[in-house]
Amino acid sequence: MSIEEQQELKQKSYAEAIRYMNNAKETLQKAKKEDNYYSDRKYVRTACGTAYNGVLLALETYLKLKDVELPKKKRRSIDFYMHHISKIDGKMMKYLDTVYSVLHLDGYYDGVLKASVIKDGFDDAYEIINKIKPQTATVQ
After folding, report:
1. Minimal CA–CA distance to 98: which of 113, 77, 78, 71?
2. Contact call for residues 105 and 66 (beta carbons, < 8 A)
3. Which residue in 43, 56, 57, 82 could disulfide with 30, CB within 3.0 to 4.6 Å?
4. Selection from 21, 13, 22 nearest residue 137 by Cα
5. Are the beta carbons of 111 and 41 closer than 8 angstroms?
6. Helix H segments across the chain?
């Protein structure tokens, strides 16, 4: 992949991942926070699922940029991502572990309502997404 193709891929994927995160933040605001807890589990679950999908998009792009061949099937196991990320970047692996645990399992599946926990998941999601941030990012 040429440098220009890499930059184009980063630009497109970064903008899309940030769009997911912006949608997730908007949804999370609908959950209304009271005393460091969200009051509406449905919105928290939706927001966490949306943010997690933005992270998966960023991870796929990151792995493509590292010349990792993605499996043909559309639905990939978290083990696939963890296996390859752990070989490439240990710090990013820690972020992925948090994002998977907090956003996917705790937030999306279990509907955890503690705002500080969800914030930690979102913070680490941005750390992963920023790994594909192009030098001249233009977000729509």
Report:
1. 78
2. no
3. 43
4. 13
5. yes
6. 3-30, 41-65, 78-88, 90-99, 115-129
φ, ψ for residue 51, nearest 5 deg: -65, -40
Domains, the chain, ordered by start: 3-132 (1.20.120.330)
pLDDT classification of 137: cutoffs 50, 70, 90: low
Give the pLDDT confidence of 86-124 residue by residue, as tens digits: 999 999 999 999 999 999 999 999 999 999 999 999 999
- Whether 112 and 60 have beta carbons less than 8 Å apart is answered as no
pTM of the model: 0.92
Q: Which long-range contacts (CB under 8 A, 24 or more apart) does 110-117 make?
A: 111/41, 111/42, 111/44, 111/45, 112/44, 113/37, 113/38, 113/39, 113/41, 113/44, 114/36, 114/37, 114/38, 115/33, 115/36, 115/37, 115/38, 116/36
Per-residue pLDDT tens over the stretch 49-84: 999 999 999 999 999 999 999 888 777 889 999 999
Per-residue pLDDT at 139 exceeds 60: no
* CA dist., res. 96 & res. 127, Å (int): 9
Q: Give the integer Cα–Cα distance in Å for 64 and 137.
A: 19
